[in-house]
Design goal:
This is Zinc uptake regulation protein. It comes from Salmonella enterica subsp. arizonae. By secondary structure, this protein is an all-alpha fold. The chain has a domain of about 30 residues. It is built from two helices and no strands.
């Protein structure tokens, strides 16, 4: 990262790499459009950042 920044004319001070994801079951629950009729456990809420 530092080398790439230097080649572009920048002095990189800090870099942060983040990874976010959900397990397969949680992906299915998050994508659910019918929470009252599906049978999924919607008791755990996923925080979403405002866009």
């Amino acid at each position: 990262m530092h080398t790439l920044a230097a080649k572009m004319g920048f002095a990189l001070r800090h870099n942060v790499i983040e990874a976010h994801g959900l397990c397969p079951e949680c992906v299915e629950v998050e994508a659910c459009r019918y929470p009252g009729e599906c049978g999924h456990d919607h008791s755990v809420l996923v925080k979403k950042k405002p866009r």
